[in-house]
């Protein structure tokens, strides 16, 4: 008899050990879902090629929870071999930060993308 042990896969933990919470938005009438990670909340959806963030707000800026949001999405992108897109990005400071410090590329139409494939 051969005995093997199985360990549970290592669970992902973000920088501040925050959970990724999701819920329907507008009673399921469209493809967008609500998310919350710590004090950050927003809207996201997915396609076969990417995870997309449409809106994000940090209700307590400066606490680092935005990093946790990106870590959660980036972990899922790596796992599922998808890119991460942030759509309708009207905040020039955030857009610059994402491009210059977070590895995103400007793909036009006020959108940025980070490829993990």
Plain-language structure description:
With 117 residues, the protein is of the alpha+beta class. The protein has a single domain, classed as Gcn5-related N-acetyltransferase (GNAT) (Aminopeptidase), CATH 3.40.630.30. It is 22% helix and 32% strand. The chain has two helices and seven strands. It has helices at residues 65-80, 92-101, and strands at 21-24, 33-37, 40-46, 50-58, 83-86, 105-108, 111-114. Strands 1-2-3-4-5-7-6 form a seven-stranded mixed β-sheet, with helices on one face. The protein is globular and about 30 Å long. The termini are far apart. Residues 1-8 have low confidence and may be disordered.
Please describe the structure with a list of short key phrases separated by commas or semicolons.
single chain, 117 residues, alpha+beta, Aminopeptidase, 7-stranded mixed beta sheet, 7 strands, globular
Q: Which range best describes the helical content: under 10%, 10-25%, 25-40%, 40-55%, 55-70% or over 70%?
A: 10-25%
Strand residue content: 25-35%
Cα end-to-end separation: 41 Å
Q: What is the strand tally?
A: 7
Major sheet attributes: 7 strands, mixed
- Tell me the name of the CATH class: Alpha Beta
The coarse silhouette is globular
Find the structural class using helix and strand composition.
Answer: alpha+beta
Radius of gyration: 16 Å
Strand order of the largest sheet: 1-2-3-4-5-7-6
CATH topology: Aminopeptidase
CATH superfamily: Gcn5-related N-acetyltransferase (GNAT)
Mean pLDDT: 90
Low-confidence runs (pLDDT<50, min 5 residues)?
1-8
Summed up, the domain count is 1
- What would you say the CATH architecture is? 3-Layer(aba) Sandwich
Helices, by number, come to 2
């Amino acid at each position: 008899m051969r005995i093997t042990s199985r360990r549970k896969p290592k669970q992902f933990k973000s920088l501040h050990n925050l959970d990724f919470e999701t819920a329907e938005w507008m009673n399921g009438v469209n493809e967008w879902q609500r998310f919350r990670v710590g004090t950050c909340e927003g809207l996201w959806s997915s396609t076969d090629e990417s995870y997309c963030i449409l809106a994000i707000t940090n209700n307590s800026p400066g606490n680092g929870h935005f990093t946790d949001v990106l870590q959660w999405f980036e972990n899922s992108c790596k796992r599922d071999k998808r890119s991460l897109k942030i759509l309708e990005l009207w905040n020039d400071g955030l857009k610059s930060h994402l491009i210059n410090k977070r590895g995103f590329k400007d793909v036009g139409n006020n959108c940025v993308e980070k490829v993990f494939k």
